[in-house]
Hints:
By secondary structure, the protein is an alpha/beta fold. It folds into 2 domains: about 5-80, no CATH class; about 85-170, no CATH class. It has helices at about 10-15, 40-50, 65-75, 85-90, 95-100, 110-115, 120-125, 140-150, 160-165, and strands at about 25, 55-60, 80-85, 105-110, 130-135, 150-155. Helix 2 links the parallel strand 1 and strand 2 (about 55-60). The mean pLDDT is about 95.
Amino acid sequence: xxxxxxxxxxxxxxxxxxxPSIELWIELKSDAxxxxxxxxxxxxxxxxxxxxxxxxxxxxSFDISVVEQVRDVAPDLLRLVSVDARTAKAHGxxxxxxxxxxNLADVxxxxxxxxxxxxxxxxxxxxxxxxxxxxxxTPQLMxxxxxxxxxxxxxxxxxxxxxxxxxxxxA
Length: 171
């Protein structure tokens, strides 16, 4: 058996530095107890800046405190905060969550079920161009969200999503 491990962020950034049309949305994870890793924001921002990818990279997290750190450490990087129903509920509902992150995040990544349930609120509060829907993995969900037209679509099957987008699903 061959021992393999995930690539280092620096290796991934070096690879994408040669692909100027690709944007990088890098999620900053926390440990198994939900505690952010000390120094992770600083290390990620430094790696992005060192490769010159700061103009087409964003850092994101489910943890608002991590996105606040991104704002403080690397104010020029794009910031995304992700939310699902559980996270919204913990913050007092979707309206309260959006109010909390309105001036913090450039984009709010929203689970597709929550997005569907709160579509009008999201569109009215932050605008669709500042919203990302995740994770749309079936052709039906992809077609539905292509038509709904949020600013960003996230799928575990980007090849199929791109093909459906190219077919010109009516918006």
